[in-house]
Design a protein that fits this description.
It is a single chain. The chain has one domain: P-loop containing nucleotide triphosphate hydrolases (Rossmann fold), CATH 3.40.50.300. The longest helix has 25 residues. The chain is an alpha/beta fold and 286 residues long. Strands 1, 2, 5, 6, 7, 8, 9, 10 and 11 form a nine-stranded mixed sheet that branches. The protein has a two-stranded antiparallel sheet with strand order 3-4. Strand 5 and strand 6 form a beta hairpin. It contains eight helices and eleven strands. Bound molecules: adenosine-5'-diphosphate.
């Protein structure tokens, strides 16, 4: 890797190539597991597609791929055409997961170079066609795959998912710093499991609503929105039916669809700002 004038090596991202046909690659990360990173990645991808974009979703959580379940891919075969993986066209998006290439219940024990190779192949050997957004669900924490990602393709930026508690924030801050060190801009923070609406209709701040929003403020990062704890969201994730989360007539009411739409709208806006920062504003003269 070449060195900058100051002697420090350039951030891996600054020399990574753009993925052909993909306008915006967005990584979804989290400081720790179980905060709802995959859930947010899936629902952001579907929400962006519902807004008219061509969207791909890559399950880069190669140690614990969730997409076969969350998208209901178990019965589908992985097609390979002319040596390239064909993504599954489901719920209005195109999706690919390592989970369809390995045995479902076998532990995925990757050594560093194997993890690197598996992730790189998923990115580079999938026939995405033209995409407005490629959403990439990363493993939690600050491990090898994030470095591979930064070296493999040019990203518009990363989204950080965090629950409101202090312990989740501490890990999220470390993950934010990692993205920044790799040269990947953090486009914003999502607060998941922010509050809960009980059967009595009251809102309960189980984990301390607003904690992740305050963390975003402290780090000078945009806040993309908050998603409530919602039993229907957990159920639709288990049955692989994400479109149900956007039904305003569902029993849970508008809180969930509104929250997911808000996230996607705010992400769109941050992506437009990030594109302007790198390219300058696009002038259209008619
Ligand atoms: P991660 O990718 O961070 O490990 P997941 O997205 O797999 O986390 O979510 C962990 C579990 O929590 C899943 O069963 C998922 O359905 C559930 N879950 C995530 N977010 C919510 C939420 N806002 N409301 C209810 N359940 C949720």
């Amino acid at each position: 890797m070449s060195e900058t004038a100051g002697g420090a090596p350039p951030a891996p991202q600054s020399v990574a190539p753009a993925l052909p046909g993909v306008r915006h690659a967005i990584a979804v990360g989290a400081g720790k597991g179980g905060v709802g990173k995959s859930t947010i990645a899936v629902n952001l991808a579907v929400a962006l597609a519902r807004r008219g974009h061509a969207v791909g979703l890559l399950d880069g959580d190669i140690y614990g791929p969730s997409l076969p379940t969350m998208l209901g891919l178990h019965a589908l075969e992985q097609a390979v055409v002319a040596g390239k993986l064909s993504p599954h066209a489901v719920h209005g998006i195109k999706a690919i997961t390592i989970g369809k290439l390995v045995e479902a219940e076998k532990p995925l024990i990757w050594r560093g170079p194997m993890a690197h190779g598996a992730f790189k192949q998923l990115v580079e050997r999938t026939d995405w066609g033209e995409l407005d957004y490629l959403v990439i669900d990363l493993p939690p924490g600050t491990g090898d795959v994030s470095l591979t990602l930064a070296q493999t393709l040019r990203l518009t930026g990363a989204v950080m998912v965090c629950t409101p508690q202090r312990v989740a924030q501490d890990d999220a801050v470390r993950a934010v710093r990692m993205f920044q060190q790799l040269g990947i801009p953090v486009l914003g923070v999502v607060e998941n499991m922010s509050w809960f609406i009980g059967d009595d209709g009251k809102e309960y701040d189980i984990f301390g609503r607003g904690g992740a929003e305050m963390m975003a403020q402290r780090l000078g990062l945009p806040f993309l929105g908050a998603v409530p704890i919602n039993m229907a969201l957990r159920a639709s994730s288990d049955t692989g039916e994400p479109l149900k989360n956007f039904d305003p007539d569902a029993a849970g009411g508008r809180a969930l669809p509104d929250a997911l739409e808000t996230l996607a709208g705010n992400l769109e806006a941050q992506v437009a700002l990030a594109a302007m920062r790198t390219r300058g504003p696009e002038l259209r003269v008619s």
